[in-house]
Write a structure and sequence with these properties.
One of its GO terms (molecular function) is oxidoreductase activity, acting on the CH-OH group of donors, NAD or NADP as acceptor. This is NAD(P)-dependent dehydrogenase, short-chain alcohol dehydrogenase family. With about 260 residues, the protein is of the alpha/beta class. It starts with a helix and ends in a 7-residue tail after the last strand. A 7-stranded parallel beta sheet has the order 3-2-1-4-5-6-7, sandwiched between helices. The longest helix has 29 residues, at about 110-140. The chain is about 45% helix and about 15% strand. The protein contains 9 helices and 7 strands. The radius of gyration is 17 Å and the shape is globular. It has helices at about 5, 20-35, 45-60, 75-85, 110-140, 160-180, 200, 210-215, 230-235, and strands at about 15, 35-40, 65, 90-95, 140-145, 185-195, 250. Helix 2 (about 20-35) packs across helix 9 and helix 5 runs parallel beside helix 6 (about 160-180). The mean pLDDT is about 95. Bound molecules: nicotinamide-adenine-dinucleotide. The site of nicotinamide-adenine-dinucleotide has 29 residues, from helix 2, helix 5 and helix 7.
């Protein structure tokens, strides 16, 4: 089989958490273009439904919208049951939902800390665990987590210790699962984006004024676009990456190099 054939995802069943907007939406579009049917999982079901309709119209592929809060084990189990009713199997799972709260460490409240860790780290564990159980039963699958370059470096100048800690946790959680499930046919990798222009940034009055500074700090002198993560997502979801597990892919316009 040639490489372009291996990059196809025809017939694959995939879910993306946080798929209603931003990076998750772009990943959903990318894997659908490569042939997959996709479940858009999000807390925000109205936006998830709109996204599913829009992407179905654009690609002609099957999209379903499923509401779940990834921090709640019972909702994650229900989400998996709903996806299996529609799709029968799960070939790839993108554990992507995440938030950022910026606050100086000495002022961060317990609730702020807990919210970031619950969604970004515990939520990734719960969705990866639930997807992993299905994939072990099936005899294989691919799990892709969204970490961040903030799991590798301390961003400057904004204070975000909980976010950084959660993303470092995602990277080592991903490697741990890859090792545990290596002989069960389940591959687990993470994508660590640099600054990408999404609502996570544009909705934050704290982050928007920093965009110009980040552009100057990035060797390629711009933020990334969500569609620039599609190729790695398609690669990791399918057979082209069969020997790739336990890896973290930093895609950041060389931000972390300097
Ligand atoms: P976004 O805010 O545009 O989208 C995040 C989506 O996640 C939203 O649709 C939201 O409703 C959903 N979500 C939030 N909490 C949830 C929960 N508890 N359960 C289910 N869904 C939930 O954000 P984005 O920029 O697309 O970020 C996606 C991922 O990429 C996050 O993990 C983020 O940390 C990571 N990331 C983003 C950047 C960036 O610069 N934008 C950089 C590195 C990593």
């Amino acid at each position: 089989m040639g490489i372009m054939e291996k990059m196809r995802l025809d017939g694959k069943k995939i879910f993306v958490t946080g798929g209603a907007r931003g990076i998750g939406k772009s990943i959903a579009l990318g894997v659908a273009e490569a042939g997959a049917d996709v479940a858009i999982v999000d807390l925000d079901i109205e936006e998830a439904k709109k996204t599913a309709q829009q992407l179905a119209a654009e690609t002609g592929r099957k999209f379903i919208a499923v509401q779940a809060d990834v921090t709640q084990p019972d909702q994650v189990e229900q989400m998996i049951a709903t996806i299996l009713e529609q799709f029968d199997r799960i070939d790839a799972a993108f554990c992507n939902a995440g938030i950022c709260i910026n606050a100086p460490a000495e002022e961060m409240t317990f609730e702020q800390w807990k919210k970031v860790i619950d969604i970004n780290l515990t939520g990734v564990f719960l969705t990866a665990q639930a997807a992993g159980k299905v994939m072990i039963r099936q005899g294989g699958g691919s799990i892709i987590t969204t970490a961040s370059m903030s799991g590798h470096i301390v961003n400057y100048p904004q204070p975000q210790c909980a976010y950084n800690a959660s993303k470092a946790g995602v990277i080592l959680l991903t490697k741990s699962l890859a090792v545990e499930w290596a002989l069960k046919g389940v591959r687990v990798n993470s994508i660590s984006p640099g600054y990408i222009g999404t609502e996570l940034i544009s909705n934050s009055p704290f982050l928007v004024p920093l965009i110009k500074q980040w552009e100057e700090m990035t060797p390629v002198r711009r933020l990334g676009r969500p569609d620039e993560l599609q190729a790695i997502a398609v690669y990791l979801a399918g057979d082209a990456s069969k020997f790739t597990t336990g890896s973290d892919f930093v895609i950041d316009g060389a931000f972390t190099c300097v």
